[in-house]
Amino acid sequence: RSVLKTPLKQAATSHSILTEIQPDCQPLTTPPKPKEILPADPWTPTSNLKMLISAASPEIRSREQRRELSNNSREVLQAKHCLQEHLSGDEYEKSQPSRKEKSLGLLCHKFLARYPDYPSTAENNYICLDEVAEELNVERRRIYDIVNVLESLHMVSRLAKNRYAWHGRHNLSKTLQALKKVGEENKYTQQIQMIKKREYEHEFDLDGERNEEMARSFGSNEHSEMSFVELPGMEFRAASVNSRKDKSLRVMSQKFVMLFLVSTPQIVSLEVAAKILIGEDQLEDLDKSKFKTKIRRLYDIANVLSSLELIKKVHVTEERGRKPAFKWTGPDVLPNVQDTKLETTSTSCPPPISESIPSKEQCSKNLFPSRGKQNFTRHPSLIKLVKTIENDRRKIQSAPTSPVKMSASTDQNLSALPSKMAQVPAIAKHQLEGQSKKAREMKLSRSALESNQLSPEVVPKPEPPRVAAPSQQPALAQPPAVCPPSHSSVSPVILPHTPAGVSYAIYLHPSQAHTVTTYSPSFMLQPLPCANVTGIKSINSKVLNKTTTEEGDNQVTTDDPTKSLTAKERPPIKSETSSQRCLKRSQALQEDNSIKKCRSDEESLDTSLTFFPSGYLIPLTQCTHGNKAGFSNKEKAGICSLQHTTYSSPIAGVIPVTASELKAVNIPAFQITPLNIMLSPTSIAAAPVLSNSCLNSSNTSSAHNPSSSVLNFTLQHVGLIPAGVQVPANPVLQHMPVSLQPESVSYSSENMNLQEEKVSKNILQLFDRDGLSEKYSAPSVPKELQQPQPVTENFFRTPGGPNTVSSLSANSDGTDRMSQGTLYIPQRKLEVSED
DNA sequence: TGATCCCGCCAACGT
DNA sequence: ACGTTGGCGGGATCA
Fold first, then answer.
1. Which residues contact A338 (CB under 8 A, 6 or more apart)?
2. Which parts of chain A have pLDDT scores under 70?
3. Lateral strand order in the sheet of A126-128
């Protein structure tokens, strides 16, 4: 008899029946393993799939059809295959749910079939894990695997225990952009090259002792701090769970994706991915079992990514033989085109303020390129030293800062807003075409703009005492003057970049956060502005990249860069959306404020929290700003005061601790690097400008100057990091000069990151203290869900420095891919074969 | 065989 | 104390 597929529920039933023998056969709970008992029958995955599809809404169905047509997904093929088998007459026994039928990939397909790729915001797309698990007839554990990776892509977000919200692919492009940035900042490209190179070397000499070297080099790679990359709109939901938890799958998934986005042939072998991921987590011990486990996990992730059609399995044939690998088949992720446009627009649009901000951002970028830590990190001994220091700090760590500070930071955010706001309109315009809906948003944005103009005034007024605010403003206005030299020298054209679209936050591990925290709770305010800056990429890097290198193993061919955003992707919209969201949020906040005016510190915390994220994330900031702007200054002031209740003058309290302090604190710890010595004139010049913001201090130390960067690079890599690292010494690496610059740039950012981390850390603590995290997820308020919740956990940047987006922009032209500090590796021919 | 990766134990967490 | 999450790796399947 042919096996038929019992409907899902029935299947469940059968399951339980099967398990009769065993005690607890709860359909819902993980059934005891029936194993051979398994009936021979029932539902084939295919059948289930079909049923699901048929049952699904037309929308879903159509989507599914498309999928099948495309035949892109391996799972589908497999499913078909299975089906055929059944049809052909294999029997029941044979049809026993084979392993394949139970594969995560298939399961994921089923899961995805239940939800539309682009759910309307209106509908509540809640996901109840229990339900899903039951309906799909799988253990909940499996659902977690799927959901976790979906979460890493922000396709879902956790609302509460057992509940998730489905976002579909609306956030996908943004997420990918963010991931790409982070990946670039982490120099994944280089790491990949390093690993490949190492492998190559291995071919010749027997390894064994080599492990040491490997370990060392890996250790250097560790960008351990990075945890979870967040998006503006989605900030906190994901974080609702404890930060510590965001460890593995989620993060691994993001990193894995980053590898694809960063590597030129967008093909990543499991082996390489595993090595890199391991390297990040723990330096050294490449122990075999760990490697194996990593691989296992990667398969899990790969399966769901495959189901999402973001990647597909291929085999890379090298001299060694065939190695399993995956090829990126998802959308091309370019630096935000829109952003660029925006930039341009903003530039053209005169509002001084708007312009000023971008410039400021640029400055910050330059100052804080990316990843400063790495410099010393590279050297084992240095790493240890750093770690030790960090640990000490951790221990010393002070109590969470008062909420008030947060609010102060909010204020700062305001200043940043204008520029962003200015951009909004442009974005809206672009989006207009596709979405009629957007019109509304346009309005919002426009209003926001208007508000922006007001903003400048607002910012300064509220807090006269505050040093930072005033200074910032001027700085912003002038940016060109100060910063220009640096970028202009490199590439004037590119300068104007603002990465508005891609702001993101990274979740740090508590431990790391601590480290940062130690620095200065008090500075919290300061950091925020920086955060704003952060979103922006460093121009420098871009320029540097521009230099371009041709080496890469580009053979494989990636899709043309030009392609970039497809109409279907809606990134532009998003930016708008985010801004809109921000506005909403800000409004909400205001309401909150008005309502809660007299609340205690905790309350203020909430508020501040809300703000904070916004501050950090560009979109949010804008919103906040807009809101405030909308209100009379007085109101703003009132709000501020409310938030700061505790402090007589919120600003004052905050202000005291400014850049100078930060510098004092931060520098000692992190600036130890030789790099400091070489300051480029440019950087120095820039420093003054940024001085207001805490960030500056750190940046100053770093050198952007090409020559200096080269020196640094040389020192570090050659002197400090002899072995596996890409060293000029290596004959192969002829292109070093080019690559060097990016490196140098990246360094400075580190400091900034630290500061941010600090801030975030503090924030975190606050949250924890209040236990706010789940607070907002209240089921009762669906609407709320739509908007980003104020609650967040630590979202910060990684050492790699999300701040530096530069790489992204650089890539846009398509030239730079290999440029970043990449080593040229002798290439074996790569042959990619599909399965 | 090596590549895949299902399964579910059990610890960390949350409530 | 109990339910939820999800790290982890043994060992079954697949190719």
1. A427, A430, A500, A501, A565, A571, A572, A575
2. 1-96, 122, 199-227, 230-247, 280-286, 319-320, 336-835
3. A126-128, A163-166, A156-160
- How far apart CA A20 and CA A724 sit, in angstroms, is 58
Question: Is residue A652 one of the residues assigned to a domain?
Answer: no
Label each residue of A245-275 as H, E or C: HCCHHHHHHHHHHHHHHHCCCCEEEHHHHHH
| Cα atoms in the 13 Å half-sphere on the side-chain side of A143 | 24
pLDDT tens digits, one per residue of A331-389:
887 776 544 332 222 222 222 222 222 222 222 222 222 222 222 223 333 333 334 33
Q: Which two tokens stand for residue A479?
A: 């940016």
Q: Is the separation of the CB atoms in A479 and A689 below 8 Å?
A: yes
Q: Is the CB of A80 under 7 A from strand C?
A: no
Domain tally, chain A: 1
**Residues in a beta bridge with A834:** A314
Q: Could you give the CA distance from residue A232 to residue A582 in angstroms, rounded to a whole number?
A: 9
End-to-end CA distance of chain A: 32
The answer to whether position A685 is within a domain reads no
**Is the residue at A553 inside a domain?**
no
* CA closest to B12 C1', residue: A245
Query: How many Å apart are CA A265 and CA A260, to the nearest integer?
Result: 8
Q: Is the Cβ atom of A293 within 7 Å of strand C at any atom?
A: yes
- Domain hosting A277: range is 104-202+243-328
Pair A694, A533: CB distance under 8 Å: no
The answer to whether A320 CB is within 7 Å of strand B is: no
- What b/e sequence results for A49-62 when a residue is b if at least 16 CB atoms lie within 10 Å of its CB, and e otherwise? bbbbbeebeeebee
Each residue's pLDDT tens digit, A634-644: 333 333 222 32
The pTM assigned to this predicted structure is 0.45
Residues in A 15-44 whose C-beta is less than 7 A from nucleic strand B are 30-33, 35
Angle between helices A403-432 and A618-630 in degrees, nearest 10: 100
Strands A156-160 and A505-507: unpaired
Q: From CA A371, how far away is CA A137, in angstroms rounded?
A: 46
Angle between helices A352-367 and A527-535 (to 10 degrees): 90
Tokens representing A679 are: 């300051």
Domain assignment of residue A223, yes or no: no
